[in-house]
Amino acid sequence: MATQTRSAIPNEDKLLDAARKGDENAFARLVEPYLTELHAHCYRMLGSVHDAEDALQEAHLRAWRGLKTFEGRSSLRSWLYTIATNTCLNAIAKRPKRVLPVDYAPATDPHAGPGEPVVESVWIEPYPDEILGLEDGFASPDASYEMRESVELAFVAALQHLPPNQRAVLILREVLGFSAKEVADALDTSTASVNSALQRARASVDERTPEQSQQSTLRSLGDEELKRIVDRYVEAWEKCDVETVVAMLSEDVSFAMPPLASWFHGR
Description:
By secondary structure, the chain is mainly alpha-helical. It has a domain at 101-118 and 221-265. It contains 13 helices and 2 strands. It has a two-stranded antiparallel ribbon.
């Protein structure tokens, strides 16, 4: 299965043998090539960079402790994804759903003021560009979402509305391109259940995501046009130029700024 870690790890068998005997350095060399994509996977599942970091750390520990049980019937990558996915499912079961302000309460009266911030951590967090580390294109020929598209806020927000198992199925099948059998094995369920969950998840996500992804929009604009738009927008904010900001907005615009729960709709 092709991903940004397409090439095999040099001396993987020797490293596996050493790691099973307790060599932590060998284990670190085995898993290091997969950490970036596993972190992104945990983020898609959890909607939070901080939660993703905690989940990845926990998955890393589980993999180290369970390495002796890895018999090589699946790829090392598939085995690591199984551990990371189930770690995230456990985390989801113990915490409230992450949402955007638009999912938290009705749109705010524009004359009512922004209100008070929400103290508890409930918001979906955007994925920082500096840790993205994901290539353009697809994880495998069977994937439906590009790797960069799959960490866009709109897509991750839509994922959070899915039941946890549907979320895992959609990500593993449509983002990462694992087969239905591989996903069934990872989630300890049947292939038929995976295919059924995937159909329901696709329909739900399609309802909540824009027709054109952010990556598609960026490509259509081009670097120069994008820079011009961003510069104009930032300059308007710095000057408190409300008229210019409003002139740049779409008719169906929604505006929010966590930790405030209030959000505004329309120009």
